[in-house]
Model the fold of this input.
Amino acid sequence: MNQNTDANEAVRTDSHIGFIGLGLMGHGAAKHLLKAGYKVEVLAHRKRQAIDDLLGLGATEAASAAQLAERADVVFLCLPDANTVDQTVLHTDGLLAGAHAGLLVVDMTTSLPDTTRRLATRFAERQAEFIDAPLSRTPKEAQLGRLNIMVGGSSEQFARVTPIISSFCENIWHIGDLGLAHTFKLLNNSIVAANIATVLEAAVAADRLGIKHEVLMEICSQGGAASAAMQMIMPYALNGDSSTFQAHTSTLVKDVRYYNQIADDAGGAGFMAKSALHLFQLAAAMGANQTLVPELYDTLSALDGTQS
Done:
């Protein structure tokens, strides 16, 4: 199901929203919650720029995740990985310690479905709820309030959260039961990663084979080789513009590793995602772990011996 957020429906904004994880994606989402009129409370963090920006827009600040949970109706998580979600929830001063009846925690992290289901069981013991709702698109869309989001959980939970996430999402899909949104996001990201790996390899091969990048981009964009991955990667090979995909190698490694884990656990046969993972792990081992993904063109050019 697709929920287009352009519908002119009155949205209640009396919910107290907690937000943990104010990176490039989370900051934009939290900003639009404030613009929509929600009372937003964020978690204290040593990196102050994003927090101070939101405080200037009217947000408040909690000293701990437990304190934030105690006061919130809905808490959003937008964290780097499943381990960080675990720590944020299960720490002595974590979300679970402050959970109360009626609390809904919405995990927008690209995480593991087993983590989602396990934590949902822990929150249910306190009459609270935990659902998965990973994001897609880029930090640019986050700042514009035009993210995509996939939701896993009951129809009732989907109905409860939809008016809130409509403030920062353009498209909203209810994927199905708890954990299926994180499953779908990992499947989606495995497709993207395999395409990125192919485009990077083709861009480097073009140098060796005497094909100009302008020609590669122009002609491939008009045929079956056209892809979002090409639009994200080729601008860097053409003119050094890496702004088209603001993700690091480490993120791709994590996402594809998670996908391979759930695919293997399900007994599936996997080939392309494993090959992509090997490529990105190799780049990370070469020192490019925190390199923006389009800039892996340089890493692979050095490996191929075509770098000038």
Notes: Residues 4-10 have pLDDT under 50 and may be disordered. The longest helix spans residues 180-209. The chain is about 50% helix and 15% strand. The chain has two domains: 2-177, 184-304.
